[in-house]
Design brief:
This protein has helices at about 10-15, 40-50, 95-100, 140-145, 180-205, 230-240, 245-265, 310-325, 345-355, 360, 425-445; strands at about 5, 25-30, 60, 70-75, 85, 110-120, 125-130, 225-230, 275-280, 295-300, 365-370, 375-380, 380-390, 400-405, 410-415. The protein is an alpha+beta fold and about 450 residues long. The protein has two domains: about 5-145, Chloramphenicol Acetyltransferase, CATH 3.30.559.10; about 205-370 and about 395-445, Nonribosomal peptide synthetase, condensation domain (Chloramphenicol Acetyltransferase, 2-Layer Sandwich), CATH 3.30.559.30. The strands form three sheets. A six-stranded mixed sheet has the order 5-6-7-2-13-12, sandwiched between helices. Strands 8-15-14-11-9-10 form a six-stranded mixed sheet, with helices on both faces. A three-stranded antiparallel sheet has the order 1-4-3, with no helix packed on it. β12 and β13 (about 380-390) form a beta hairpin. α1 (about 10-15) packs across α9, α6 (about 230-240) crosses α11 (about 425-445) and α7 (about 245-265) crosses α11 (about 425-445). The radius of gyration is 23 Å and the shape is globular. It starts with a strand and ends in a 5-residue tail after the last helix.
C-alpha cells in the first residue's frame, strides 16, 4: 500500500482529540470454551496475522504541503508486538476495558491496539480492539479485525471481479477541459448551498437545548464501559407490532433506558429531550476498500420526557422517517459533511475549538455497527458476545453503540468514569425497557 492523503473527515477526527480526551473507538469480544493456554495462543495468532493485514501497518503522518495536511502511509518500523498485548487475568472484562479505553493510542505508530484479557476462572477470554477513526470507520475497523480472526474453513475464495475499462475522459490539451466547466461550477454551487443549509440547521439545533446535567461531563481522563445483551427475536416481535425498523426500536430502547436511569439517579425527566447524533454511512454498496470515512448523520431528539413506551417508539419512528425523507446530506446531523469544505490548515487550527463545542450540537451518540452473521472464532474459541464502543465526544457523559450478532442484540456503552459510576444501571435499564415494551404490545396488539 502507498501513501495517500487523509480525507477531510479523517483529518478532522485526527485533530479533534487530545491526550486528555482520546476519541478512539473500540470493540470488546468475549470468546468462550477456552482452555487456560488459549489467551496466550490468541495473542500469538493476532500478532502473527496482523502482519498480513495491510491496513494494520498504516500510520498517520503530518506533511508540510498542503499546510496542515496528513497522509496515511505504511510504517517502515511496524511491529505487531507493539500493538498486541496480553493482560493479567481479570474478573470483570468491562472494568478492565474501561481502564484500557481511557489511555490514548500512540500517534507515532499505526493507531490501533488489541488487548487479550484472560478471565480469572480460565474458562473464557476477551479481546479489546481499539482503532482510531482516522484509520478506519466502524465498518472498516470491523473488516480489519475480521482479518485476524480464524479463517472460515467453509468460505470459498472469491474470484476477483472483472474491471471494466472505461473510455478515457482526459482532455488532450493543457489546462482544464472546457466541456467539464459547467458541471464543475454547478457542483460547487450545489455543495455551497448544501453547506449553508447544514450550517443553518446546526445553528437551529443549538437554540433549544433540553438535556440533562447527567449527560454532560468535564473531561476526567477516565472511562467506564458496560454492555447489555437482548434477544433479537423478541425485538423483532415487538417491532412487527409497533412498525418502523429494528433500528428505530433499538433507539427507542435507549430513550426509555435513559428515562429509567435518570429517574433512579433522582434527576428530573419531565422536560428532558436530549439530542442524539445517529451516524449514517455514505459508502456505496460493494465499494472495494474505500479510502477514508464516509459519514453523515441524523440529529434526533429522544423523547425521554414521554412516560409511555409505545408513544416513545411512535415519536422516534416518525422523526426517523422525516430524517430519511430529507436525506442524510441535509440537516444538523450532516455536520460531518462540512469537513469537506474546510482546508487542512483549517482543521488543524479549528479542531481543538470544535472539540469543545460538540455538546452544543448533540448530547450523545447512538451508532449501529454491522457484524457478519456467521460465527467467528479466535484460537478455535467461538465469539459469543461483542460490545462495540463509539468515540466519546468532549463534554459528554455517554456514547452508545449497538450490534446484532447471532440472534442477539449487543449494546456497548462507554462513559466518562467519574460522571457515570453507575453505568451498569443504564445497561440493566435496556433490558427492563424491552420487557416493558413487550408487555405493552401484548396488552394492546393494535398499536400501529
Amino acid at each position: 500500500m502507498t501513501a495517500a492523503p487523509l480525507a477531510p473527515l479523517d483529518l478532522a477526527f485526527w485533530t479533534l482529540e487530545s491526550v486528555a480526551h482520546p476519541m478512539h473507538m473500540g470493540a470488546l469480544g468475549v470468546f468462550t470454551g477456552a482452555a487456560p493456554e488459549a489467551p496466550g495462543r490468541a495473542a500469538g495468532l493476532l500478532t502473527e496475522r496482523a502482519e498480513d493485514v495491510p491496513g494494520l501497518g498504516m500510520r498517520i503522518r503530518s506533511v508540510r504541503i498542503p499546510m496542515g495536511a496528513a497522509v496515511r502511509e505504511p510504517d517502515p518500523d511496524f511491529d505487531p508486538l507493539d500493538h498486541v498485548h496480553l493482560t493479567a487475568a481479570t474478573k470483570d472484562f468491562h472494568a478492565t476495558a474501561g481502564e484500557i479505553m481511557a489511555a490514548p493510542l500512540d500517534r507515532r505508530r499505526p493507531p490501533w491496539e488489541a488487548h487479550v484479557l484472560p478471565a480469572a476462572d480460565g474458562t473464557s477470554f476477551a479481546v479489546l480492539f481499539k482503532f482510531h477513526h482516522a484509520l478506519a470507520d466502524g465498518l472498516g475497523a470491523l473488516m480489519l479485525a475480521c482479518g485476524i480472526m480464524d479463517p472460515d474453513p467453509a468460505a470459498e475464495p472469491r474470484a476477483p471481479r472483472p474491471v471494466r475499462q472505461q473510455p478515457s475522459s482526459r482532455w488532450p490539451l493543457p489546462g482544464p477541459n472546457p466541456l467539464q466547466l459547467p458541471g464543475a461550477v454547478r457542483r460547487r454551487a450545489e455543495e455551497a448551498g448544501r453547506a449553508l443549509g447544514i450550517a443553518a440547521s446546526v445553528v437551529g439545533a443549538t437554540l433549544e437545548i433540553r438535556t440533562s446535567p447527567s449527560l454532560t461531563a468535564a473531561a476526567s481522563g477516565t472511562r467506564r464501559t458496560a454492555g447489555a445483551v437482548l434477544d433479537l427475536d423478541t425485538v423483532n416481535r415487538v417491532r412487527k407490532q409497533t412498525g418502523g425498523t429494528v433500528n428505530d426500536l433499538l433507539i427507542a430502547l435507549v430513550a426509555g433506558a435513559l428515562r429509567r436511569w435518570l429517574d433512579e439517579r433522582g434527576a428530573a425527566v419531565d422536560d428532558v429531550v436530549p439530542r442524539a447524533l445517529i451516524p449514517v454511512s455514505r459508502r456505496r454498496p460493494r465499494t472495494a476498500r474505500p479510502q477514508g470515512n464516509q459519514l453523515s448523520g441524523y440529529l434526533l431528539r429522544l423523547p425521554v420526557a414521554e412516560p409511555d413506551p409505545l408513544a416513545r417508539v411512535r415519536r422516534i419512528r416518525a422523526d426517523m422517517d422525516r430524517n430519511k425523507q430529507a436525506g442524510s446530506d441535509r440537516g444538523a446531523g450532516a455536520v460531518a459533511l462540512l469537513a469537506e469544505q474546510v482546508p487542512p490548515l483549517g482543521h488543524r487550527l479549528a479542531g481543538p475549538v470544535l472539540a469543545q463545542a460538540a455538546r452544543l450540537l448533540f448530547d450523545l451518540m447512538i451508532t449501529s455497527v454491522p457484524l457478519p452473521s456467521l460465527g467467528m472464532k479466535l484460537a478455535g474459541c467461538p465469539l459469543a458476545e461483542v460490545y462495540p464502543f463509539a468515540p466519546l465526544a468532549h463534554g459528554q457523559t455517554l456514547a452508545v453503540a449497538v450490534s446484532t450478532y447471532r440472534g442477539k442484540v449487543h449494546y456497548g456503552l462507554i462513559a466518562d468514569g467519574e460522571a457515570a459510576p453507575d453505568l451498569d444501571r443504564l445497561a440493566a435499564a435496556l433490558g427492563a425497557e424491552l420487557d416493558a415494551l413487550t408487555t405493552a404490545v401484548e396488552q394492546d396488539p393494535a398499536v400501529r
